[in-house]
Amino acid sequence: MTTAPEGGPYVDDGAETTESSLLSLDDGVLHVSQDGPRDAPALLLIHGSASSSRSWNPMVPLLTGAHRVIRIDLLGHGRSAKPADRSYAIPDQARRAGAVLDRLGVERAVVVGHSSGGTVATALAEERTDLVTALALVNTGPGLHALIAPESAAVAPSRWPPADEQLRLFASTAFSRAGYRIPEELLDDVRDMTPHTLTTTMRATRSYLEQRALPSRLSVLGKPLLVIFGEDDRRWRSSSASEYRAVPGAQVELLPGLGHSPLLEDPPRTAAPLLAFAAMHE
């Protein structure tokens, strides 16, 4: 992997065609990756808490045939800045995502969020109805009542960085079965966070869901919605996916045998409904 100065491309270690850059916004520097034809319809992928854009790596080759795939490391995550004096509220994360698309010259995008990334995707659609043509949520719980395992249960910010055993316990609920080989780079994403960014970003998701459940937010937006849910999710009750049917026209796809991270466990099965959905709403 090679690095580049701000705004310059470099080749990502996970995908030789990836163009990555660091974009300076008013309140932070964000790492952005792009794949696929630049003149193709835009597909924005937003990662979940304590993760990064690298969580989408297995999906990217399946999506670039017909899309300009854009991934952002949200502030506090991945290779983006991790300031202690900036807001990590979901609307602010969404505002930054919209600013990135503006800087890239993207006027319309299908936005996809995994886990808590789905809250950022929803907030972006609330704030920028002109920009978001459709939404896809992957294993995003509709509200806190659907939560099974608190995401922070296995990581104690008082001891940082976490021990490997803590990290693996923390990450294990993101997959459907015990013994799943967790990619080391995903554990590094947690290690690279600060105690402040980890706890603050997780509290931000909780606060956003406490204010209003996602189906209620989405029902008034009038945006096409796809919900993909691994049926064996160990963080959110998969049965709660049915609550999104309250959104007019919502499409809900349950994936048997997959857990909280179907984008990692079975990328082709996850990509199939997403590609069909995106093709209808670009």
Helices and strands, in order, run as EEEHEHEHEHHHHEEHH
Number of domains: 1
Q: What percent strand?
A: 15-25%
Number of continuous helical runs: 9
Overall pLDDT level: 90
- Strand order within the widest sheet? 1-2-4-3-5-6-7-8
Oligomer: single chain
Give the tags.
alpha/beta, 282 residues, globular, Rossmann fold, single chain
Describe this structure in words.
By secondary structure, the chain is an alpha/beta fold. The chain has a single domain, classed as Rossmann fold (3-Layer(aba) Sandwich). It has nine helices and eight strands. It has helices at 60-63, 90-103, 117-127, 164-172, 184-191, 195-211, 214-219, 262-265, 267-281; strands at residues 19-25, 28-35, 42-46, 68-73, 109-114, 132-138, 225-230, 251-255. It has an eight-stranded mixed beta sheet with strand order 1-2-4-3-5-6-7-8, with helices on both faces.
